[in-house]
Task: structure prediction
Amino acid sequence: MASSVSPSAVLELVEIQLACFLALLLSVAALHKLFWRSRALRAASEMTGMAWRSAGMAVSLATASELGAAGLLAIPAYRAAGALLAASIWSAYFALIARSIVIGRRDVDCGCSFGAAHRPLGRFELLRCASLSLLAVVVAALCFASAGRGGASESVAGAGSGAAMLVSEALAAGAMLALYAALDHVMALGPLRPGEIR
Amino acid sequence: MSFLIASQILLWSAVLVLGVVCIALARQVGVLHQRIAPAGALSLRQPLKIGDPVPQLSLPGLDGSTVQVGGVRGGRSQLVLFLSPDCAVCEALLPSLRSANAAEKSWLDIVLASDGAGDKHAAFVREKGLARFPYVVSEQLGRSYGVSKLPYAVLINEAGKLSATGLVNTREHLESLFVAQERGVGSIQQFLKLRGQKRASSGE
Result:
């Protein structure tokens, strides 16, 4: 590695790239709820037991929260707040999925898959929410650590030009989202024999 | 532009391409899942029809115990596998049988059945480590199910009715009986026929 790049610059780069990925994922999730509103409404109604009208309000609140968290994550000064909001959103989803599993409603379509098909709720859905929540907490922790060192801009500025940084962030977020979508597609594949993969 | 940013751009570009390739592959696998026909056990002509109650028989097991075949058995299904110590295909199927026994033990009991001299079967059980399975030697049992070729399996559901039967040469054939029961069809042939009718009616 070139001697001009400090470890703090690498950490800040990781923070920015993870934040961009989370922001992109939250934006896509919010758009998904907007475009496939009936699926989101059914998921909210079945998972919370709410009436259709209340479920509509819950979906609107979730969409607004996701867009808000994505926006905050994109602004360096509010990134920590955005990350904490994102962590709380995924924690809430984790709790709803866990509740559905506990009460024996594994068949509910949680709407958390980008594809039309859905698999029964299980460990993978819980692990996914927990991982995303943890990732958001990591971003918040990196933000606080960066603030403690005196801000991100100085050390990252030494690592590259603004345009190159922007390209790197966009590519990283896009690549992580592509990997996430690939995993989503693979897990949505039904086993050739139902019950073969648990 | 520093070395760090340049390498980041290159590596993330590669990861992006990799992610897109993975998505394309996963979609192709999904399409294949929908298109391929499942390989299933070949259902032969038999005296009992799918859905018929299976006569309850109490037969002596090889270890001296009494083995109940058929009938209602406390909400559990029963798979009767007909085999022979002289049948090479039956021997090749045994690892799959052990694996299926472990995977399906929550709802299924497996009974092995054969006919002929008892000594040969005792040696077969000992040699192949089949002591965990009830093993009956009964010509009457084979005749009542119309078994003419080996290895042949009969799946009896929890209500004591014939759920699926067929010639089983591989694990896929064996599992097709379980799928037939889960999907409520008698055989893979019936499943394919129903699927063809469904596609024709939907204009696919």
About this structure: The interface with chain A takes residues 1-6, 8-9, 12-13, 15-16, 18-20, 22-23, 26-27, 29-30, 33, 38, 175, 178-179, 182 of chain B (CB under 8 Å). Chain B has a mean pLDDT of 83. The helical segments of chain B are 3-35, 88-103, 118-128, 139-145, 171-183, 188-202.
